[in-house]
Design brief:
Layout: H1 15-31, H2 69-76, H3 80-109, E1 120-123, H4 130-139, H5 146-149, E2 178-181, H6 187-201, H7 204-212, H8 217-230, H9 237-250, H10 257-268, H11 306-313, E3 322-325, E4 333-336, H12 339-355
Length: 366
């Protein structure tokens, strides 16, 4: 039977046939697998955070924004509490370490004060001898033997100043001043400081002046030591120096009683002799007896200060040959060029002593 051209024929199906067609199409659609719609992909959220979006037997959860609270909880996972606890413990430990360091630094910045020993001021007056300085050092608490320490030193050799090689000690070089010493310091330290002070004050100028005066530096120092023990005023220092040099040039005995006192002290082994010289002592057999021996004594008889050293280096330009204590008792000397004038001054002084009950005259000058 030839195929009918249905496109050219009108639709003559009954209502029953059309209903069957609708049911057939519905069955076909029900038999086809269901394809779920593909969700839109968030380009900012990492795909690995959620795993597979869908499986064959699950329903996909609704997509969440990466900044929602749900997203933050999933990113932190179960490590959030332990991490915070660890951070807190680390901060506490760091704070404890910082506190300990600050405490240590505070303790170092405020250490317990160490008591500083108070320096001992050792006063050595001008004109003192080695034996007298030894007493001062002992009374100020210095240790050791000053007499032994002041015999010689590597800091100063008297021979370099023109002293004889057999010079027994450093008398004359032990410069008088006030020295600050540690409590209980050894006397050798005092001797060293005295010698350093002497070298600072007795230098090229004094050495040159000694040669100009026709003496050695050591002899100039010896003259200064006698001036120191004889003069009581600054006015008399260069005048006494002139008398000593004038007598040396004329070959006369110096007649310095201070040198005889030094001889008595050495003979008796004492530091200071304060009694009046007896007639026997005026004739004591000693090279320091300048009444019976001409020239200078063999060593200085004291340790002079700067003023006496200056006077020995620059004596007054006068022709005096004699002096004796003035009768007014004010400390100055009465100078003269002749022996007759000298005897008159001696008589005046003796009369003043007698008038004062046998004691040296008292100065009445205001």
């Amino acid at each position: 039977m030839p195929r009918e051209d249905r496109s050219q024929q009108p639709d003559e199906r009954t209502e029953e046939e059309r209903e069957r067609d609708r049911e057939e199409r519905a069955r076909r659609r029900a038999a086809e697998p269901v394809r779920p719609p593909i969700p839109a992909v968030d380009q900012q959220a990492p795909s690995a955070s959620w795993g597979p979006l869908l499986t064959s037997d699950t329903t996909a959860p609704p997509a969440a924004s990466p900044q929602t609270p749900q997203t933050l909880r999933r990113r932190g996972g179960g490590r959030s509490f332990s991490a915070r606890a660890g951070a807190v413990l680390a901060l506490l430990a760091a704070g404890a370490i910082i506190w300990l360091l600050l405490s240590a630094l505070h303790g170092r910045s405020h250490p317990k004060p160490i008591p500083v020993p108070v320096a001992v001021k050792v006063l050595i007056p001008e004109g003192k001898t080695r034996l007298q300085i030894a007493q001062i050092a002992a009374s100020d608490g210095l240790t050791g033997s000053y007499r032994a320490a002041s015999r010689r030193s590597a800091l100063l050799n008297p021979v370099h100043y023109g002293a004889p090689r057999n010079t027994p000690d450093l008398e004359g070089f032990l410069f008088p001043a006030t020295y600050e010493m540690n409590p209980g310091a050894n006397v050798s330290q005092l001797v060293e400081e005295q010698l350093i002070a002497f070298r600072q004050r007795f230098g090229a100028g004094e050495i040159r002046r000694a040669h100009e005066l026709g003496v050695t530096p050591y002899e100039l120092l010896t003259v200064a030591s006698m001036i120191e023990r004889e003069a009581q005023t600054s006015h008399d220092r260069p005048l006494i120096a002139a008398v000593i040099y004038n007598r040396l040039h004329q070959g006369m005995p110096l007649g310095i009683d201070a040198s005889i006192y030094y001889a008595v002290e050495l003979q008796r082994g004492i530091a200071t002799y304060t009694e009046e010289l007896t007639e026997a002592q005026l004739h004591i057999d000693s090279p320091y007896n300048t009444r019976t021996h001409t020239g200078l004594p063999p060593t200085p008889i004291s340790n002079p200060g700067l003023a006496s050293i200056e006077a020995a280096a620059h004596p007054a330009h006068v022709s005096y040959l004699y002096y004796v204590a003035a009768a007014d008792g004010c400390g100055e000397q009465a100078f003269s060029t002749s022996e007759a004038a000298f005897e008159r001054n001696v008589a005046a002084y003796r009369a003043a002593v007698q008038a004062n009950g046998g004691h040296p005259p008292t100065c009445k000058r205001k």
